[in-house]
Amino acid sequence: MSEPVTTNYVGRDLPRLEGRAKVNGAASYIYNLRLPQMLHAKLHRSSVAHGRIVRIDTSAALALPGVHAVMTAQDLLDLIPDPYFGPAFHDQPILALGKVRYIGEPVAAVLASDPHVAEEAAALIEVHYEELPAVFDEVQAMSSDALVHEELRPAGTFPDLKHLKGRRGTNLALDFRLRRGDVDQGFAQADHVFEHRFKVQPVMHVPLEPMVSLAEPEGDGVLIHSATQMPSFVRLEIARLLGWSENRVRVKTALLGGGFGAKVYIKLEALATALALLVRRPVRVALTMQEQFFHITNHAATLRIKSGVTKDGRLLARQCEVWWNGGAYADIGPRIAQKSGFTAAGPYFIDHVSIDSYAMYTHLPPAGAMRGFGVPQLVWAYESHMDMIARALQIDPLALRERNILREGMEHATGTVMRDTAIDQVLAELRKRMDWDQPVQRGQAVVRRGRGLAIGVKASISPTTSVAMINVSADGSATLYCNTVDMGQGSNTALSQVAAQVLGIAIDKLRVVSPDTAVTPFDMGTLGSRSTFHMGHAVRLAAEHARQQLAALAQELGLPADTALPDLFRRKYGMSAGNVVGTGTYTSPYAPVDPSDGTSKNITPNWMIGGTGVEVEVDTETGQFVVTRLVSVADAGQVINPGIVATQLSGAAIMALGGTLTEEMIYSDGQLRNGSLAFYKIPGTHDIPAVMENAAVESAQSNGPFGAKGVGESASFAVAPAIANAIEDAVGVRLTELPLTAEAVLRALRQAQGLDLAKD
Fold this sequence. Notes:
Elements: H1 19-24, E1 39-45, E2 51-57, H2 59-63, E3 67-72, H3 73-76, E4 84-85, E5 92-93, E6 99-100, E7 106-112, H4 115-124, E8 126-131, E9 172-180, H5 183-189, E10 192-200, E11 212-218, E12 221-226, H6 231-242, E13 249-252, H7 269-279, E14 283-286, E15 300-309, E16 315-325, H8 333-340, E17 352-360, H9 375-393, H10 397-404, H11 423-433, E18 447-459, E19 465-473, E20 478-481, H12 491-503, E21 510-513, H13 531-557, H14 565-573, E22 579-587, E23 607-619, E24 625-635, H15 642-661, E25 667-668, E26 671-672, E27 691-697, H16 719-731, H17 742-752
Parallel strand pairs: 1-14, 12-13, 16-17, 20-21, 24-27
Antiparallel strand pairs: 1-7, 2-6, 2-8, 3-7, 4-5, 9-17, 10-15, 11-12, 11-14, 15-16, 18-23, 19-20, 19-22, 23-24, 25-26
């Protein structure tokens, strides 16, 4: 039935399939695509945070030579009468309609053959506003009279969000409640009660390939070339907006130059499509790096956490409140508030848990999915809190965690039983790699040393569906069709390893087709570390389906099961002809949450675990500190490709390092003050710790494809609290707001000495 394969592919450290093309410059990206007669669209953006649009004057822009057209929301209404999109609520207009809700919101689009002409013309547009009160802080938004939206319309697209309603007359997009036991009783029984408050700043994804969508009319339909992580969802949403059948909308993508959640759901595709259909020419909407700051951020957050603990450090009760700053449009914030919110108590067994997680609207740019999907914000709080408890009780921080972690068969706070979750193994690996049982060499005089660790848990997104198709050709080669987008995580390689393993063919005979909704089947999206698990299952099932058909063909012809594929097809058709197509569909199991208490017996198909250990050196005279060593440990199940897992862990850790130490979007009354890479600092080569280690513990996921599960986010969870814990270990001061800066350390040191540095 197949050519013999002498070595298993699963578990092998194979080079990435696209690696050579990336190195020699042959790899294609949507940002580089140009089409005949293509027009460039440039945007005029709002200059006020909240206001009614009184008048838009486009005359000067239209008079500029080379301008083809200027479009406002009014021009779109004949084509799209209800021009609002969004995965949770249909709340975001393609162009601002009637009102603007944040500084930088797109108000008008200028089309020209020359992008510089379009950009110049966009600056000539004048918009007159009636300014309205605005709110920017997520906690203040709870009680503010400055409403971002007067009405909310739930999208109803996803099964886990069909309960969404929003609260009229408030800025609440969603408030999620989880209740287990009785927290008041737990606090009453506790020997100690600790309460702390933490803050997380807004940061940006900074994919080095900026967001881009290029749409072109195609017969009675439209072809959209987009740097998107979700081609299937883009097709679905564009078809809904236009009132078309899905087969009139075709979405193609290529390799992505990074995504990290910035390119999920709808971003620029609706605008590019509307403009292209109105002018009947290809239209390219491509953001500059600076413009990306106005389209999507992570969720800034305020977190309050309170724990009741026994004398020996056993957690009895935990109460958490999380306020997520969702910005002006919900995007996928309600899912973050719910699906990440229910992990706010951490990877610990606690009898009494109360969690309130609020997705709030404010007058800032929209916030959405970002690597970790809200979990890094939560881990920052609960793992800083755990170290503060450990120090107060004079218990070793690692021992305190080991005393309380969830183990196999225990119930998570949601009521879901923990299965194949190697929290204990991750902690044990951190203990070994950090030489935790050996004393720290503290240093002398000015420079002091310390170490810290932290651990986090994330639920895989569910329920979602992935479909794969494998075409086995007569010469023994095979082609894999799926809508998983390779954006640097190595998914094409890992999925090819799964397919080759099942089919029993050499991996160099297998080709992966880039996502194209005209030929590649449905996938919910490339996000949330779901692809290895969900699409891995679909690919496995498709390969098994193809293998079954090949076995049946061999039996029909009376040939041995191990007949070489070219011989099998020649015997059947008399020549090298024909093919076999295998299909596979996987939908993860899921039990909806009980609306009365937020619990579920099956909240996720698998849990992701990530732990971080760090060593730091702190200069007590200046507050300057250096992370000298960073260790990332994850539970990745059975590893498909060790090399890819290692780079995923180091990449996630470095990205989290930026959000911990240097990255922050600084606003003043809604105006972004540092919206360029000249002032917004991502980590460079010299910012990376001298020693970085990555490890995946041996722990098979019993319900995963070949025992595997996703790992792309795991090393992002715990970096921030591990560093803060190490700083306190070194110099005895506790920071509770991100980013962690030398100024903050110095200020805390001086305050500990009874001094208070002037903030001016």
